[in-house]
């Protein structure tokens, strides 16, 4: 059932003027319409008798018919029934610039008794209508009749004006009710609701508001600032406008307050005398717009954050790409330098081979000349030093012979402690940090020790006056993204060896060239500039990689990453076994009678004419039948025309390589013994031949003899079988 308004609310908001008196004609209350009609405030008249509150004009007492008014009240008290005064002349005092003045007014009044349960009058309700203008029109009608103006015309004018005023009022009421926003009118300093439209009722939850002050009708607004603003507008008479004001309203009984956002205008209603009588409130509910704007703002902020995040990702990706590209270019440059260095070392080995071979042949002819023998030994020593240099170059080119095996680097560091302390001196404090359960690596022990010692000595020299050298070992699992700048490195488990010094660090231009062979910043004449190059080549040949980090004045960190895996075979194992095979074959040859009395039939392929001639003479002096070729293509033709026991070829040939020649020759004759002459070890698995031999350059006559005797012994045993 819809809530019915209280009678007090009707009394308060009625547009008709009402006055409430007690039986002694003392004024109890008056509504806003009455106060506006009589230009009085409730404080001026409440508690006073009506004839005192509206005293007669002392100058023209005949204009104030007080007796008629009092007689009507007396009839109501006596009869306890309604009494009407259709017309009563009653002047009232109004304010003016010269003090109080009286206006001659005409009224139509109805006096209604209010009875208690016993039927006694407890109050009188006066309904008053100001008919002064109507009375004046009637007077005008009377005065117009003698002048000949038709009474019907005057009455029609009166009715027309009344209808106009009524239509105007109805129009204003329709505009108020159908206003696009919420509208209300608040009367007096307590902001009493006098008028509210349907939109205002919907906004506030269809509560009974008429006749109630804002504090009573909407108590939840207390403390939200709205009532304070109303007080300020009423006090100053200045309008107030704001947008998007937040309000919490109890729109449903028992529910939590709802959050609303409104645009508001508080417009004071100012009377002719400058007094504020009320406030006209106009506004719009913009909650949905506010929420849409908030969602749009949050979406925009989220979108901006996504853009910022994506921009950061792109910057990080671009930075990572540039870093990986720089690392790749550096690796490619070092690879190119390595290939060049390997080629130079190969040619250098050929020259050493020629020099060394001729010196060994000369040694036979100078056995009685001590001076010549001394000079010969000095020359041989030079050849050996050149061979060591070629070995270092081949290490950088990742072509040195290796004997990889499973190594625990932590244990290896422990075994090297005395060696490191002796090499570094007392000024350098060595701090070793080894992670528990360190994975084993597959590496050549001797070369790994040399690499660690090389890095430690470099760190000592960088620190100058001494300091702390940290050697740190830990396990790492690296994925493809982390290895983006390391071409050739496979994802998987690695052991990181970090060599960290407190030295002066490197400038960027020095850091970029640190791995290049023969590059050094030391002024020491004994510095070859091959230390870091050898480490780089050894680690690359072992399947790992090296990262160099340094800032000028901040020290240097060299990070060596070696793969942790179990090898299927040992790289370079064939090379290591050659000497053993030669020794055992030599021993066997002493016990076994040679099956080849006239020696082996050897096809020797070498593109250097001097070396080809020299080595051919050596093998010929050893009693073998030697055929010489300068290319693989010529050797294949020889193999088609003649049978051979041994194919001995250089690895680097113009056109078809030595390895390709060996593979093709074995496919034609499976019994053919094959040997590769190279400055670096050749893995038999890479060639696809199980019994491939490698003879490392530069080799001497004794190595050639041992190799051929070993082959001869094996072929003799195979022939008997």
Automatic annotation (TrEMBL):
Record keywords, A-Z: Coiled coil, Kinase, Phosphoprotein, Transferase
Keyword Phosphoprotein listed: yes
Residues found modified as 4-aspartylphosphate: 650
Pfam family, one: Response_reg
GO MF terms held by the record: phosphorelay sensor kinase activity
Keyword Transferase attached: yes
EC primary class: transferase
Domain PAC: 88-143, 243-298
Residue ranges occupied by any Response regulatory domain in the UniProt entry: 601-712
Coiled coil region boundaries: 289-316
UniProt xrefs under SMART domains: HATPase_c, PAS, REC
EC number(s) per entry: 2.7.13.3
Domain of life: Bacteria
Histidine kinase domain boundaries: 343-566
Substrates-to-products reaction catalysed: ATP + protein L-histidine = ADP + protein N-phospho-L-histidine
Protein name: histidine kinase
